[in-house]
Amino acid sequence: MPGILGIIGGGRREERVAQVELMLSCMKHRPQYLSGEFGCENPRLRAAWTTHEDAFSAGMPVWNEAKDVCLIFSGEDFTDPSEIELLRSRGHNCQPDDPGYLVHLYEEKGPQFIEQLNGWFAGLLADFRRRRVILFNDRYGLGRIYFHQNSEGFYFSSEAKAILRVLPRLRELDLGCLAQIFSYGCVLGNRTLFKKISLLPPASRWIFDFSDVAGRQTYFTASQWENQEPLGPEEYFQELRQTFARILPRYLGGKRPVGMSLTGGLDGRMIMAAAHLPPVKLPCYTFGGPYRECCDVKIARRVAKLCAQSHETISVGPAFFREFPELAEKTVYISDGTMDVSGAVELYVNRIAALLAPVRLTGNYGSEIVRRNVAFRPGGPCTAMLNPDFRDLVAKSSLIYEDERTGHELSFIAFKQIPWHHYGRLCIEQSLLTMRSPFLDNDLVALVYRSPPSLAKSADLSLRLIALGNECLGKIPTDRGLRYPPLPVVSKVLHLYREFTYKAEYACDYGMPQWMARVDHFFSPLRLERLFLGRQKFYHFRSWYRNQLSPYVSEMLLDSRSLARPYVDGKHLASMVRAHVKGEGNFTGEIHSVLTAELIQRSLIESAVT
Question: What residue numbers bound the domain in which 333 lies?
């Protein structure tokens, strides 16, 4: 994934150069990546970066005119263009699409310039006049920075594997954090899967004087938005409408072509309704499955056509099953274990999407921010397959979750759920293309904190915004049968039907009870699940693990190494795998967890991490 890495302090220059080169080699996941290195001796610093070709952060490092301030930046910034015009009026030579203006913002505002940035990013700034280095990330923490500090220096990287590569003694799993992966699919807090590697907290501005940390500052806290006065219903709606229309052009611009990933939901349609683009300006695409055209594909095609935009379906086909072993390993490796093996399907479809457009605009995080959807809760696998000590760690992880859930619900979603739970998928997507979503724009999120309680979870606002932007779009029912204005009786019936198909598909896939799995096995020649699979979702790992992927699952999880791991009960694990492959049980979630853990062990702990 594009990012930054380096060593602050450390020993001899030759050693730092060699270590940074090894770290950089771990992050060059595609031959198309651009990369470079930068170093200086006062302060002692060696850093490097990777980036997509022609991306906002291409052309690093950037310098001021005097060549005494240098910046390495990864990600994108959507600062209001008026701020850049103000810099130009003060004599700075800068352009909106060129990250060089960031250095000039620093010259004008000092370290406080980071507070003004708007996007997902991580950066390193070296100020030779003041002999200091500033390491920073965005306020949500989506621009991840892993770090480890010892007597040899401060090691940092956008990917943990880069640090593991040069400090092999750190290749030790934190079983408490692995238990959280089993329970929630992510690690909570600023911890990582690796015992002695930590995460820079969100909104960090860490200032180094030579080789020591001179100040670990936090430049933003959620309380700055939480303490705003709520607006009245109509006032809030009008502010939301105006703000969304104002910020959206930021995400449609730039030097590189932008593609729109459309689904059958509300949030992508909000973008299409507000964009008002010329015909064939924004290519659209939707991910589809192998069985039938899912609801997303059918609805998205209608939305794109009504907006006079092209549309393509990117389908998961036979090639995916052939490539799954390699895709699964890459998913775990690229994401440092933050994305489970189901992310292989994201690697597959986004690889094709990148050929259509190098920037992917998405409605991701809309339901979370605008309608406060809490997307993850304690779950976990069947505990019979776990070692008793590890089983206790999984049980205790639910208490950690309850502590994290206290406080403002929107703050939990924006500053915990999204950077913890959603990061793994974003990491995989970002490794292939540049991801953008207007729903995490600072201006929009700040406004949503002012929503009246009566509208905080309502879909009516989104439906109304769509209808006002494009009346015809509002009349196309969503994947849940919602439209604006609703039709008496018809809308209710459609909503109930769509909810039924959604739940029926879940019951035939991830959520199939064990008794139903045995019944399904008895009637397997009839392939009854095909009546429901593919109507809403485009991937179906329960049946895939039982059929197309069963040889790989058996080979990996019935291997003696997998069965001997300290966190599993090998006998019960083998029994579950065999039952699932035979169709006598549903252990999809368990296979996800154990297969992911096994690939973490093999690719990040036991291998040379190359």
Answer: 224-375+422-467
